[in-house]
Write a structure and sequence with these properties.
single chain; FAD/NAD(P)-binding domain; Enolase-like, domain 1; 7-stranded mixed sheet; binds 1,4-dihydronicotinamide adenine dinucleotide
C-alpha cells in the first residue's frame, strides 16, 4: 500500500513532520537507521548534554556556591557513573516518548537505512541486509548532520582520547586537562560540563571571539565570565594538527595573523569545529536530487527539492543547525504536503547556549544592523540592578534590546544571564507580532523576576529604565 509521506530520519525535524502530517490525516512512515528515534538531538546531542549540564551545575553549586547563601559544610563527591546513568535515563524517556507518539498517531516506524530511489520510491535496508521498497506520494529528507572535523586537518576521532560531542558526553573519567578545538556552542557547553567536574579546560578558537556570529558585546562579556570560572582561551589560533601523544593527545596551533606554532598536550581533545549535512548513502545523486556548493540539499522557499514530491528540511538544508528550526520546518512541510500554507519565520529563531549563565538571542545583532546600514537604538539593563538576581546571587549579565530608530519595532534581543534561555521567548513572541520596545516596556512583568530586566531594557530603548 502506498504512503502519503515517507520521512527519512527521525530527528526533531523528521519526527515532528511525521506527527504533524499524521495529525492532518496523512498516512505516514518514518525510516530510521538508529535503534531509537529522536536523531542526534535526543540520542547524542541536545538532550543528553542538557542532562550533564544540569547535573554538573548542581555539583559545582554544591561544591562552591552554597556558603554565600549560609549553607555550610557541603562537600559533594562526584559519582560520574550515576551522573551518566541520569543522562541515559533522560535519553531513554525522550526516545520512548517519540515511539509512543508514533503509535498514538498511527505512524509506521521502519527500522533500517533509507535510500531515495527517485520520485515516490524509497528503499529500506535493515541490519540483516534485507531490502524492501516502499511507495509513497511524498518523501521528506530529514537526515540531519554529522561531525565536520577540522577543515583541512586530518583528525582521527576515536571517541575516547580524541572525541567529538558523541564521546564528549560519555567520558569514563574526568580528564585532568581537556582541550576544546572550537569556541562555538558545543565547545563551550561541553567544556563547561567537564570544567565544573574538575577538568582544566583550554579552548582553542580560530576567530578573535567566542560564539562567532553572536552579538559582539554579549560574546565579550560572556567570555570574561567563563574566564572567571577557570576556562582558558587561545583566540585567533588556527589548529593545524591533532595527534595522539602517549596516553593523551597533542594539539598544534598557530596564530591566524602569522607566527610560530605552539603545541599543548591534554588527556582528552574535543573536536567541536562544526557539523556538516548528512547525505551519505541516500542515493541523492542517482535520484537526481541537487545539492548546493556546501553539500546541503537544495530547496526552494517551499522546502521542495528539484525532484517533484521530494522535500528536505533541518540540518541537511540551509539555515542554522538548530533542533527547533528543524521542528518548525517539519510542521511547515507537513502543512504544505497536506495542501495548507506552511511557513517558517527565519527572522525570529531564538538561539540559546546552555552554559551558566546562559546566552540567548533572537533577531539581529548590533553588528548585523550596522552592516546592513539600519538606523537603530539600543537599550541595556544589567542583572546587578535586578532584585531577584541579587537574591539568587545571579547578577552576572545583562539584557540588550535593539529597535528600529524610527518605528521602534524590536529587531533583536540579546541576553546573557541566569535563565536567559527561558526569558528570550517573550522577545520572540513580541517580534513575531511585530512589537515595539514600548510594547515590551509597557507590558506588566511580575515582581520580582529576572524577566523584569527584559522590560527595563525595553524601557531603556524607548525612554529610560526605572531602576537605573
Ligand atoms: P560552531 O560552528 O558553533 O563552532 C565551531 C567553531 O570552531 C567556530 O567558532 C570556528 O571558528 C572554530 N574553528 C573551525 N576551525 C578551526 C580551527 N582549525 N582551529 C580553531 N578553531 C576552529 O560548531 P559546533 O560548536 O561544533 O556546533 C555544531 C552545530 O551544532 C552548530 O550549528 C550549533 O548551532 C549546533 N548546536 C547548537 C546547540 C544549541 O543550540 N545550544 C548545542 C550544540 C550544537
Amino acid at each position: 500500500m502506498a504512503y502519503d509521506l515517507i520521512v527519512i530520519g527521525s530527528g526533531p525535524g523528521g519526527y515532528v513532520c511525521a506527527i504533524k502530517a499524521a495529525q492532518l490525516g496523512l498516512k505516514v512512515a518514518v525510516v530510521e537507521k538508529r535503534q531509537t528515534y529522536g536523531g542526534t538531538c535526543l540520542n547524542i546531542g541536545c538532550i543528553p548534554s542538557k542532562a550533564l549540564l544540569h547535573a554538573s551545575e548542581m555539583y559545582s553549586h554544591a561544591a562552591h556556591g552554597m556558603e554565600a547563601l549560609g549553607i555550610d559544610g557541603l562537600k559533594p563527591t562526584l559519582n560520574l557513573a550515576n551522573m551518566m546513568a541520569h543522562k541515559d535515563a533522560t535519553v531513554k524517556s525522550n526516545v520512548d516518548g517519540v515511539s509512543f507518539l508514533f503509535k498514538k498517531n498511527k505512524i509506521d516506524g521502519i527500522q533500517g537505512t533509507g535510500k531515495v530511489l527517485g520520485k515516490g520510491k524509497v528503499s529500506v535496508t535493515n541490519a540483516a541486509g534485507e531490502e524492501q521498497v516502499l511507495e509513497t506520494r511524498n518523501i521528506v529528507i530529514a537526515t540531519g548532520s554529522d561531525v565536520a572535523g577540522i577543515p583541512g586537518v586530518p583528525v582521527e576521532i576515536d571517541e575516547t582520547v580524541i572525541v567529538s560531542s558523541t564521546g564528549g558526553i560519555a567520558l569514563e573519567k574526568v580528564p585532568e586537562h581537556l582541550i576544546v578545538v572550537g569556541g562555538g556552542v558545543i565547545g563551550l557547553e561541553l567544556g563547561s560540563v567537564w570544567g565544573r567536574l574538575g577538568a582544566k579546560v583550554t579552548v582553542v578558537e580560530y576567530l578573535d571571539t567566542i560564539l562567532g556570529g553572536m552579538d559582539g558585546e554579549v560574546s565579550k562579556q560572556f567570555q570574561r565570565m567563563l574566564v572567571k570560572q577557570g576556562m582558558e582561551f587561545k583566540l585567533g589560533a588556527k589548529v593545524t594538527g591533532v595527534e595522539k601523544a602517549g596516553s593523551g593527545a597533542r594539539v598544534t596551533f598557530e596564530p591566524v595573523k602569522g607566527g610560530d606554532a605552539t603545541a599543548i598536550d591534554a588527556d582528552v581533545v574535543l573536536i567541536a569545529t562544526g557539523r556538516k549535512p548528512y547525505t551519505e548513502g541516500l542515493g541523492l545523486a542517482e535520484a537526481g536530487v541537487a545539492l548546493d556548493s556546501r553539500g546541503r540539499v537544495e530547496i526552494d522557499n517551499h522546502f521542495r527539492t528539484n525532484v517533484e514530491g521530494i522535500y528536505a528540511l533541518g540540518d541537511v538544508v540551509r539555515g542554522p543547525m538548530l533542533a527547533h528550526k528543524a521542528e518548525d520546518e517539519g510542521v511547515a512541510v507537513a502543512e504544505i504536503i497536506a495542501g495548507q500554507a506552511g511557513h517558517v519565520n527565519y527572522d525570529v529563531i531564538p538561539g540559546v547556549v546552555y552554559t551558566q549563565p546562559e546566552v540567548a538571542s533572537v533577531g539581529k545583532t548590533e553588528e548585523e544592523l550596522k552592516a546592513a546600514g539600519v538606523a537603530y537604538k539600543a537599550g541595556k539593563f544589567p542583572f546587578t540592578a535586578n532584585g531577584r538576581a541579587r537574591a539568587m546571587l545571579a547578577t552576572d549579565g545583562f539584557v540588550k534590546v535593539l529597535a528600529d530608530k524610527e518605528t521602534d519595532r524590536v529587531l533583536g534581543v540579546h541576553i546573557v544571564g541566569f535563565g536567559a534561555g527561558e526569558m528570550i521567548h517573550e522577545a520572540a513572541v513580541l517580534m513575531e507580532f511585530g512589537g515595539s520596545s514600548e510594547d515590551l516596556g509597557r507590558t506588566c512583568h511580575a515582581h520580582p523576576t529576572m524577566s523584569e530586566a527584559v522590560k527595563e531594557a525595553a524601557l531603556a530603548t524607548f525612554f529610560k529604565p526605572i531602576h537605573m
